[in-house]
Structure formats: C-alpha cells, structure tokens
Amino acid sequence: MEPATTVDSVVVCNPESGTGDYLSTVRQQAAEHGYRVRKTERAGHAVDLAGEAVDAGATFIAAAGGDGTLNEVVRGIEAVGALDSVTVGVIPCGTGNNFARNIGITGIHQAFETFESGERRWVDLAFADGRPFVNSCVGGLTAEASAETSADLKRRFGTTAYVISTLRTVRSFESIRVSVEMYDDPHVAPVWSGDAVGVLIGNGRRFPPSGSEQANMEDGRFDVTLVRATGSVGLLRTVAAERLFNQHTPWTSRYTVSAVDISVADDQPVAFSLDGEIIRRTQLSLRLQPKTLRIAVGDGYEPAPT
Ligand SMILES: Nc1ncnc2c1ncn2[C@@H]1O[C@H](COP(=O)(O)OP(=O)(O)OP(=O)(O)O)[C@@H](O)[C@H]1O
Q1: CATH number, residue 61
Q2: In terms of residue numbers, what domain contains 16?
Q3: Which residues does the UniProt record annotate as the domain DAGKc (predicted)?
C-alpha cells in the first residue's frame, strides 16, 4: 500500500529550474514516499512556501530545483526560526546542481532513497549581511554572467549557458576594485586589495584548478578564491582559464578563513551571486554559523574532502 501523504514531509518544487521537465517524476516519487508537493509560482515564492510548511508542522523540507531554489527554502526556514527543528533535502532539478553534487545527491530517485535511509549531517550555514546562503557567494564577472544568463539560455544549453554568457559579459566587463579583509582567529587578518575579476567564496563549494569542487562544510570556514585582473589582455586570459577553473594561474590567491568583509573601492554597487541569487552591494560582510543546517546527504558526501 502507498504511504499516506503527510504534512511533516514537504517538497517545494520550482517548475522553472533547469530544463523544467521533471515535475511529473518529482510528483510521482513524492506520492510514493508520502511527501506533499508545493509548486512555486514566482521567484521568491519558495521562501514563503518553506515558512508555511514549517507553520503547518513540517520537519523535513526538500527543495526540488537548483541551488537558487535550495537557497530560498533555507531562507524560508531560517526566517521562521526553525533551523533547529527541520531537516533539509535536495532534489537535483536545476541547471548546475552544484550543491546537490557536493552532498552526494546525484538524481531524483536517489534523492528520495537518501531521504528515506541516508545520513543526516549538521553543516555550516553562511550569511551575507545576515542573508543565508548555502553553497557560494561570487562577486564580479561570474556573478554578472549569472545575472545575464536567461532561463531560456539555461534551458537550451545547460551549464554551457553560463560559459556563453561569461564570454558575452567579458566584452563589457570592467574588473572590480575591492578590498577583502579576512579573519581567522588567532592569526592576523590578511587583507587582499586591488582589481579583481572574481571574488569567489565557498561554504559548500570551493573553486580548485582541478579535482573535487566540494569544500569542507563542517569546519566553520570559508574557502576564498580571489582572481586578480591584469589589464585587458590579462583579464581575458584569466577569465578563459579561471572561468572554467581547470587551470591554475599566478593571478589566483586562495585562503581558508572564518569571516570575510568585502569593500568595493568606488560607490558603484557590484553584483554578488548568493547561490545564484543576485544582490548588488558596495560592502558585504560574510559570516558562518557552524553546524547550523541539518541536511540529508548521499553516500558520496565526504565531511572532510581532501
Ligand atoms: N515559478 C517560478 N517562475 C519563475 N521563476 C521562479 C519560479 N520559482 C522559482 N523561480 C526562480 O528561479 C530561479 C532559478 O532557480 P534555480 O537556481 O533553482 O534553477 P537553475 O538556475 O536552473 O539551477 P542552478 O542554480 O543549479 O544552476 C530562482 O532565482 C527562483 O527565484
């Protein structure tokens, strides 16, 4: 007999994520496993739906979509003060699904199996000026590119859409002049300042030249990658190498720190992508709350990746 649908397990589904053709699979799996499905109707709606699910007694909320949908679900749970009573699941239906991969979730069916029998972990939750994010905060070129990447482009080209829009953006992009202050008790804070192509800060994600993109998300620390701009020709070369993050260049600096403050030198607000959601700021403070988010992880998840 099929399990009865309960209110304590809810799937918040974004029908616009990725190729948008998974809704029936998610509904069918949710019905089989006894989850209630709430479908978003607009950007930002997953924040409200997650909050409503908590109010209705949910103790498990899964985000079906990409990193942006997960971000909204977590923000909704945090907004109603329920991070300590709700477990979060991820059903990968987005374009990149970077966070899902980082926690060992590889497909829709495997996600539901994992929710049933897999491990739960407490992971760090990151905040940018008090706004939660799970995976990454990216400032500069890649954020501009992601703001420019339309849903249609993503549907047609998948992750390649981001590369296409990066190459388009690079024609008009000016590097950003920033000062990045990093704190790592008990050491003296390093300060990085200058013209940057990208400011890449990961909680769940790191930006290595090769190998796993999964960061340690239980260590109370950010993985910071700063890419220096070196004139227009250098900028193009840096972007070509670093955008795909397959090649190390001497313009890249990496740190592992517990807090970051970014100041933009002039008063032009810069685009920062928080899990793919764009905000524009001249100042941004990033903090971590260690082991604050309870999440269902797959077998491939490594708490301390090398
Ligand atoms: N019903 C909806 N209509 C239009 N936009 C929506 C709707 N529901 C959610 N959104 C917005 O869709 C955006 C993209 O979602 P999401 O990040 O989940 O997918 P993606 O971009 O395809 O995947 P990824 O982030 O993994 O690359 C989010 O910013 C979200 O606010």
Answers
A1: 3.40.50.10330
A2: 9-117
A3: 4-132
Among 201, 199, 260, CA closest to 228: 199
Do 197 and 141 reside in the same domain of the chain?
yes
Q: How many domains does the chain have?
A: 2
Q: Is residue 157 domain-resident?
A: yes
- The two beta strands, 36-39 and 277-281, are unpaired
> Could you identify the atom of ligand 1 that is nearest to the CA of residue 276?
25
Q: Pocket of ligand 1, candidates 12, 14, 48, 108: which has the most ligand atoms within 8 Å of its Cβ, to mutate?
A: 14
Q: Which residues pair with 279 in a beta bridge?
A: 272
Give the CATH number for residue 223: 2.60.200.40
Answer yes or no: is 32 within a domain: yes
Judge if 81 and 17 occupy the same domain: yes
273 CB within 6 A, ligand 1 = no
Q: Which atom of ligand 1 is nearest to the CA of 100?
A: 26
Which of 13, 17, 40, 138, when mutated, tests ligand 1's pocket best, judged by the most ligand atoms within 8 Å of its CB? 17
Distance 232 CA to ligand 1 centre (A): 33
Write the ipTM. Answer: 0.95
Residues 248-272: tens digit of each pLDDT: 566 778 888 999 999 998 888 888 9
Tell me, using a 6 A CB cutoff, whether residue 87 lines ligand 1. Answer: no
211 & 237 share domain = yes
135 lines ligand 1 (CB under 6 A): no
Return the beta strands (E) in 141-251 as ranges: 176-183, 191-202, 222-228
Over the stretch 9-29, which tens digit does the pLDDT of each residue have? Answer: 999 999 998 787 889 999 999
Model pTM score: 0.87
